[in-house]
Amino acid sequence: MRGRLRHRFLALALGIALHSCPVGFLGYKGETPFRQCSQSRRVVLRASFDQQRAAKQELLDAVKDFKRELSKSGGDLSIDFGVKGGELDKKDRAPKNLAAAGVFRAVSGDLGDAADRVLELADLLARYTPNKEPLKHFGTSLGSECALHGAWSLLFTTAADATFTKNSTRGAAKVCNVVDAVAGTVTNCIDFEETSALESLRVRLTARPASPRRLDLAFRYIRARVKSFFGIPLGGRRLTLTLPVPGPFLTRVLSFFTRKPPPQPYFDLLYLDDTLRVHRTGQGNLFIQEITKPPPFV
């Protein structure tokens, strides 16, 4: 009696084991459960990749639409130095957000709608970022393997301080950002058109990851290459001026007297792949950039 019960128990246990095993030990017609799972995962991954590609293309198309609308309105926003010129916010002296301040919509309703569309699609694309740890290896000897490492040219921004136009004293310029993830530095590169006395600006910052997606920044110096000095042409030569920015001690002193905590500059990476980068700064300004070749004099 006990022997028959033991045999039945063993048979039941073996049956449960065979039916609960994800692969199965017994052959049967059709795909194994393991293969079915693999096929299902491939379908999900393919669908996710297709959604990512579609969302990315839609954002790039929206940026083109924005530029077309800007061209219709005259091609340039009037942004100049300081608070008076619309570069800085009146309250906190931070770079003005052109979208939040209504600058795009003030030019035309269509331009405002086009800018809003870019912002909406940028947030949508962030859901499909392929890099969950975009700052991995940043600031290490393996920094060249970091997804952020390289030069990035500007496609779109809401930041007034990164917007350069012909109808301003700052003049038109090409803007890019060079990330050296080995050295742990970020350099903002601004190259002005030929008509400007100022040939280029290089703003050097050091950086360190604060989280898998956030990069804290510290301004170090500004390097300016000029073609004339106090209105005097240099005869084809170039003069390079290096200007330090306030260090930590001076920042703390200013903070003490203004009774305001020193702001920590940073940006959060929303999306990053081999060719496209989307990030938002601590002031809420959005940047969309594409991979490019490094400019001279980084």
Describe the overall structure.
Its main location: plastid. It holds the Pfam family PAP_fibrillin. The strands form two sheets. The protein has an eight-stranded antiparallel β-barrel. It has one domain (49-292): Lipocalin, CATH 2.40.128. β4 and β5 form a beta hairpin. The model is unreliable at 1-37 (pLDDT under 50). The protein starts with a helix and ends in a 6-residue tail after the last strand. By secondary structure, it is of the alpha+beta class. It has five helices and eleven strands.
Give the overall form. globular
Low-confidence segments: 1-37
Average residue pLDDT: 78
Number of domains: 1
Return Rg in Å: 27 Å
The biggest beta sheet reads: 8 strands, antiparallel, barrel
CATH class identity? Mainly Beta
Going across the major beta sheet, what is the strand order?
1-2-3-4-5-9-10-11
Whole-Å distance between the termini? Answer: 88 Å
- Helix-and-strand structural type: alpha+beta
Helix content range? 25-40%
Taken as a percent bin, the fraction of beta residues is 25-35%
Q: With helices defined by DSSP (H or I, 4 residues minimum), what is the helix count?
A: 5
CATH topology: Lipocalin
What is the count of β-strands?
11
CATH architecture: Beta Barrel
Order of helices and strands: HHHHEEEEEEEEHEEE
Report a brief summary of the structure.
By secondary structure, this protein is an alpha+beta fold. Helix content is 31%, strand content 27%.
Detail the topology: elements first, then pairings.
Layout: H1 2-20, H2 33-72, H3 103-107, H4 109-125, E1 150-157, E2 173-180, E3 185-192, E4 198-209, E5 214-226, E6 228-229, E7 232-233, E8 239-244, H5 248-258, E9 266-272, E10 276-281, E11 286-292
Antiparallel strand pairs: 1-2, 1-11, 2-3, 3-4, 4-5, 5-8, 5-9, 6-7, 9-10, 10-11
Helix pairs in contact: 2-4
